[in-house]
Structure formats: C-alpha cells, structure tokens
Amino acid sequence: MSRGFPRSLAFVLVVLYAIAGCAAAFAQAGGATPPPPTPATAPPSLPSPATEASAASAPPSAAAGTPAVSAPVASPSGSATLATPTASAVPTLPPTPPPIIVEPPSAGVVPGGTEVLRVQSVLGSISVTIADPSIVDAAIDQIARTITITGKQLGTTTLTVRDDRGVTRDVPVRVADLAGTIADSVTIRLTGDPATTYFLQEQALEAAVQAAQPRAGAQITATADSVIVDHPLQIDDTTTIDVPIIISGDDFFTVQGTTHVHVENVALPPIRPAYLMVSDFPETLTADGLLFEADLTPAQPARFLYYHFNPAGQPDRRIVLRLRNTSSQPANVQFISGMAGPEVNDMEVGHLSTERFLVRESNNEGAVVTIPPNTTSAIIAQPLPAQNIDSNLVQLREIDGAPLHLTLVAQDASDPIDGPLADSALLVGAVPHARGVYPVPEFYFDYQYDTSGPDLEVPIGQIPIPELKEGEALAGDYGVLQSITVRIVNPDPHNAAYVACYASPRGGRATGTFIIDGVLLQAHALPPFGHYELREYTIPPGGFIRTTIVTMPEGGSSYPLQLIFAPDDGSTSPGAPNSLIY
After folding, report:
1. C-alpha dihedral sign at 492, 493, 495, 500
2. What global pTM score does this model have?
3. Which helix (H) or strand (E) holds 220?
4. Model confidence over 172-222: pLDDT tens digits?
C-alpha cells in the first residue's frame, strides 16, 4: 500500500497538466467556438501579406464620435472573426414638465359677470398676470385650483397662468354684451275651426320672435322647420309649442334658447265686416309718415287692404299697423291677417296675400290681442326694403272695449316700431289710387245655369265702389270678397250633361284664388281673354247640382275677370302638367 501511493499521485499530476494545456490553448483562441468545417468545394482563403499589412496600418475612424472597431482576429481555423463595436456614451435629457391645463381654454364674460376657470397639472402655487387689467379682474383659489374672472369693461385681453416651476399658460379673455334676451315663455290666444298645424306653427314662431329682445345690430334666427306641431288645435283647447331662438351679432356673445309658447284656441264666431278700408295711396312711397287712419268700434267689424311699394333709391322701410286705446279700460281685438311680402313681383305678392286671407277667413283663423288702456300697440310690423312691395288683407273685430283708433304708418327700418310720428298729415302721391272707406266689403251672387241654354258669364271685379268721403272710387273691387252660388240644371231626362267652369281675364294678365266647394284652386298669371278650366261637373239626367265659388280680385293683377259656365269642351283639366290652374 505504501508503494502504490506515489504512482497514483503521479497519474493525477499528469491529468492536471493536460487540462491546463487545453485551457491555455482555448484562451489563446479567444474562447471562440471553432467555426463549422468549410465545405470541400469552398476551401478557406488565407489573407495575403498585403491585406494584413493594409489592415495593420489603417488609421482610426476620422469621424468624431464614431465607435472604434478593432481589427479582425484570426480564429484557429484560419477564418477572421469581427469584434463587437464599442458604443459611445449618450447624454441624458431632463424630463419635459407636464403643461398647465386650463378649462375652458378661453373665457368670455359680460360686464359685471363672472366665469370660473379650472386649473390642472400645476406644481405649487398659481399666479396670474393680466395683460390689460382694465378689462377683467381675476381671483385665485389655491385650494380649489380655480381662477374666477370678473368682466369690467368691453374688450379683449390675455390672462397668463404660472406655477412654481415657471410653466405658463395663456388664456384669451373677451368681455362683451349678450346679443339679446330670449323669453322663457309667452302666451297667445287664437281662433280657428280648428287652428291648423301650419297656422299654429306660424303664430308660435311670430310670438317667440316678438318676445325676443335683440340688441341693436344683432339678428334673430328662428325657422319654421324647427317648430314642431303635431296636430291641429280644436276650439276651447290649449297646447304648448317650443320655439328655438338664436340671437347673434359680430360684437356680441351669441344667445341660444327656447321660448315655450302657450296657445289657447278661443271660441269666437266668424267675422262679418261692415265696410272695407283701403290704403293704396300713395302706392309708391317717397317719404315716411301716415298712410291711413280710421276708427274701429265693437259694433262694426272691418276689412282692411293695404298695398305699398318702396322704390329703388329709397331707404329700407317698415309698414306698421297700430291700434290706439285712449280709454282707461283694456280692449280685446280679433284679427285675421293675409300678410305677404316683402316681394319684388307685384302679381305674386297680391296673389299670396289673397290666397292666405281667403284660406284663413274660411277657417276663422286669427289672433286675439289685448290693447291696454291709454296705450298704442302695433299688431302688425312688416319689413319693406327698397324695390319691394308689401300687401295685406286684415279683417278686424273689436270684441269689447271703447272705440280704437287705427293707423297705418310707413317708417324707416331703423326707427323703433313704437316710435312717434313726425307729422300727423296723410302722405300724398302724384298718381291717384284708392284710399278711404268703402261701404261694400262683400258681394253675394246667386245664378242658375241651364245646360241646354246659353253660357253663363259671371263678372268678377267689374263694379266700381264709391268712397264714403272724397277719395278715389275702388275700381276692380280689390279687397271685396265675391261669393257665387250657381245652380246647374240638366233638363234632359235621358242623358247626363258635362259642364265646366272657366276663368277668362278681361283686363290684362291676372292671377286668381278660387275656393270651389271647399277645395282651393289657384291660377298662375293667366293671359287675357284666354279660356282656362277651373272645375268639371257631371249633371245627371233630369237633375241638378249646386256649386259655390269664393274668390277676390288680387292686387297686382288686371281685373275684371269672368267666370264662364259652359259645356265641357275638352280643355286642359286643372292640375294637369300643362295647365295654369293648380
């Protein structure tokens, strides 16, 4: 046993020496794993002496900051291994401080009004600098992180918000007036059997606009499309209609809101006028002033027609219909209005006014207003720009109260509606036209037509009506309602008769509105002496029918016009594509 120990020790030393030699060889090779054997078809190429010399003499990179790259190191297999580039150090930038956030990002206040700004992402205390301290004041609440701005005078400025980091935020500030005020609610009274959705929409819109109070230079925007009315309003019923309103102007803050219009349909009988008032002189306006005046009493309802033109070169005007109550008691008035214009086409404005009036008169659709004691109230205010025409047919009845004084005024569009008259004298013109009070507001005709006899001709607008004082006679019967009832008899016991009613203008081109047996028919401008079918009738053998036509001569058209009942000659039917009747 003592002999074997030295022999074993010698074996261990030999093994350790071999391991140390392998480690030294591995370290000399850079510790790299020998590359895989190169295929026999591509033997490794050894670098030439020139290549080695060029690599040894290569200068360092000339570009400043470019990482240095060490020369290739030969592997034990003879191939070159590239060393990893050494990266240069990158400077570290400080973090960007979060910006100050102000909500809202800009401010607008009225003089004396306030607005609260909420500030976020600030460090430490908030401070404020105002570019023009005469415009606004600012109060800071450090705990709530808010800034309260108070308007001092009209203008614009900038408010700069700063925190302890020195970070700032600029906030534009404007001090201006509101464009106006919008009424929260208003109540109106109407008549109608029933009041149609279109009439309700129109009246609610008009009431909301009249209740709004725009500043000078501001405009009111309100459209019928935005007013929703679901159904007609029956007599003695009520409803509420919401009307969106916008008041805006360049120098003001825009105001938006909704006026709630409470509507009551009052039970009143139809109006039967006792006389006709006409204001068509001067037809062409060259000055502001009084156009017409008369008294209105509970005992005598009246119809009032006006038609006025504002020529080129004249200032924009307004036509205002006023009622003055000089008593100590209020007065209630019902009126039906067929207002049309401003419009540049004289025939169109006359037609629209007549059509609207006849439709509303047949349905008793009107407004009921109260004239307070010792007050003058404008019940109609109609814009009249230069080169435009205004026309209206108004039927009025004072329900109760003392007599009222009615005036029609032409005023400058910039004047207040309730402004005083500079002169109480009536305006005059160079060309005579009707102005005054006329005793006959309506004609009623009753005819019989025998289908075996001659044609029946009914004249419309052919009877001149004298003025009650000294004014011009009313030629053409403008404003006079014409109600014609015709009994059509067929004496043939065996065959039906086919009859038509025709319109034939006799004074020149004319438009027309006809309510025939409750059906509305309208005529475009009809050339004179033409033959235009309005209605077709079939009369049974040995029988008869009764038909009723309501019409009125229209302003801007040339009347008279004839209604002719005759055998149906096959003319174009009303409503056909090539018919002037619709």
Report:
1. positive
2. 0.78
3. strand 219-221
4. 999 999 999 999 999 999 999 999 999 999 999 999 999 999 999 999 999
Give 443's Cβ-side CA count (13 Å radius).
Answer: 22
Helix (H, G, I), strand (E, B) or coil at 474: strand
What's the pLDDT at 87?
53
For 534-569, write each residue's pLDDT tens digit: 999 999 999 999 999 999 999 999 999 999 999 999
Place of tokens 């990893």: 84
Q: Which residue has the tokens 């309260």?
A: 148
**Distance between CA atoms of 445 and 358, rounded to whole angstroms?**
17
pLDDT value of residue 70? 43
Greatest alpha-carbon span in the chain = 169
Whole-angstrom distance, CA of residue 287 vs CA of residue 308: 12
Do 537 and 397 lie in a common domain?
no
Closest CA to 540 of 504, 488, 580: 488
pLDDT tens for each residue of 325-368? 999 999 999 999 999 999 999 999 999 999 999 999 999 999 99
Domain with 165, as residue range(s), is 101-175
Q: In Å, how far are 17, 155, 377, 451 from 251, measured between CA atoms? A: 102, 10, 31, 72
Residues 190 and 261 in one domain: yes
Same domain? For 113 and 193 the reply is no
Long-range contacts of 228-232 (CB under 8 A, 24+ apart): 229/197, 229/200, 229/201, 229/204, 230/197, 231/197, 232/192, 232/194, 232/195, 232/196, 232/197, 232/200
Tell the burial category of 300 from Cβ atoms under 10 Å away from its Cβ (0-12, 13-18, 19+).
middle
The structural domain count of the chain equals: 4
Residue 89: its pLDDT value, please? 64
